[in-house]
Specification:
Number of helices: 6
CATH architecture: Roll
Largest sheet: 3 strands, mixed
CATH topology: CBS-domain
Order of helices and strands: HEHEEHHHEEH
Strand content: 15-25%
Helix content: 40-55%
């Protein structure tokens, strides 16, 4: 029987995370330094939410539209990420890649955190992981 490609096979395992009491300034800094758009929020090792680049932009533009960048930063260092994080649609590492891709397409998600049964964060699968997979598959069939 052929191996069925799972989320665990393609996920990114070295995930940058935030704690609930980290600030929006921390989140923005992590995103800018790491050039990443999705930050799982954890309590210990367990997933409790997700903060995205879109969340940071929405907060910046809606709440602080008339505020200078310096003032925005002063405010951002005071707001914990748990104030803006949202529930994350998470999947097990055994989910088939095709099923995860369908979820991301249908729900227009940019990522899916990957968790164990006890909600321990194991990794994250993003659009970039699917692009890397597509490149590998194209190289294999064109070799």
């Amino acid at each position: 029987m052929p191996h069925r490609l799972t989320v665990g096979d393609i996920m990114t395992r070295d995930v940058v995370t935030l704690a609930e009491d980290d600030t929006l300034a921390d989140a923005r800094s992590c995103m800018e330094r790491g050039r990443i758009r999705h930050l799982p929020v954890v309590r210990g090792q367990q997933l409790v939410g997700l903060v995205t680049h879109r969340d940071i932009l929405a907060t910046s533009f809606s709440v602080f539209a008339q505020v200078s960048r310096r003032e925005e930063h002063r405010i951002f260092v005071q707001i914990p990420v748990h104030e803006v994080m949202h529930d994350a649609y998470a999947v097990p590492p055994t989910m088939r890649v095709r099923d995860a891709a369908r979820i991301m397409l249908d729900k227009q998600y940019g990522c899916l955190p990957v968790i164990a049964d006890d909600r321990t964060l194991l990794g994250i699968v993003t659009e970039a992981d699917f692009l890397r997979l597509a490149v590998r598959m194209l190289e294999a069939i064109q070799a």
